[in-house]
Amino acid sequence: MPLTIPAPEPTPPEAVIEVRGVCRAFGSNEVLKNISVDIPARRTTAIIGPSGTGKSVLLKHIVGLLTPDKGEIRIFGKNIHALPRKELYAVRKRMGMLFQAGALFDSISVGENIGFPLVHHGGGLSEDQIRAKVNEKLELVGMAGFYDRPTAALSGGQRKRVSLARAIVMEPEVVFFDEPNSGLDPITSDTIDQLIRDMKAALGITFVVISHDIVGTVGVADYICVLERGGVAAWGSTADVLKSDHPMVRAFLSRNLDLDGISGNRVPLPTARPQQPT
User: Fold this and answer.
1) Which uninterrupted H or E stretch holds 125?
2) How far apart are CA 148 and CA 153, in angstroms?
3) Vertex 251, ends 278 and 9: CA angle to 5°?
4) Which of 102, 196, 248, 260 falls 20 to 30 Å from 152 in CA-CA distance?
5) Which residues form the domain of 54?
6) Is 277 part of a structural domain of the chain?
7) Is the pLDDT of residue 276 over 50?
8) Residue 225's beta-bridge partner residues?
């Protein structure tokens, strides 16, 4: 069955994240080479490319964990690497993060994991208010009634859902995903992809996804940035990137998709979706 992709927009929404001429080297190894890209508000943007092309390093620059050698990154119109610590923390409170391994605390319950940001950064909410907000997010990710469940007993897919609930519990404007489907079986991966689509539709959040799962990426992303050797090989709407004539982009995507069979906003899937490692 063909995969439906979002139709390209005549004009992208305003950029919530602006990356301008970002360069970063570690010793003699140039990891990011003059990266410039706009990430539109209230859309899902995927950053993809072969291993070692700088995807995770770029993400760490965007969230302010690393500082570029050259260039700047503006989020909500502010150059995050020029902000005083207090203002940087204020910007970060408007962002959420779903880590590759989930980064959950197994020693506490599901509800306590999700409520952790509210306890420490929620502005003095009562215990009842925190429980209400957590239960609301659990329902959004399809895990109503799991508040008091032990985190250590969750399956891989359930841990991803809980991680997503924690990422959105502060009601951020931007959420970053680092390999959201890593370690999941194909059926669970599809469920997580659907959750991302549902969250964007329900909450109007800007999502930034780093992923090796090309089929899932094409299914959730409105815009795609393809990195090659630390530079941007392709950037644009998903439909436009799938039609790119860049040799590396076509070779990379065609491992998982029948690019020659694209018709309108439908893309034929491979005969079997690649099994994710367990």
Assistant:
1) none
2) 11
3) 90
4) 196
5) 3-94+172-267
6) no
7) no
8) 47, 235
Q: What CATH number is given to the structural domain containing 259?
A: 3.40.50.300
User: Nearest Cα to 162, choosing from 131, 200, 130, 135?
Assistant: 135
Cβ count near 210 (within 10 Å)? 21
Q: What is the pLDDT of residue 263?
A: 57
Instruction: Give me 276's structure tokens.
Output: 């994710």
End-to-end CA distance of the chain: 25
Q: Which residues neighbour 216 within 8 Å (Cβ) at sequence distance 6 or greater?
A: 181, 189, 190, 192, 193
Is 181 domain-assigned?
A: yes
Asked whether the predicted pLDDT for residue 238 surpasses 60, the reply is yes
Which of 8-17, 129-138, 162-171, 259-268 has the lowest average pLDDT? 259-268
The one-letter amino acid at 239: A
State the Cα–Cα distance between residues 5 and 239, nearest whole angstrom.
7
Residue 275 has pLDDT above 60, yes or no: no
Q: Which residue has the higher pLDDT, 157 or 208?
A: 208
Q: Residue type for 24, please?
A: R
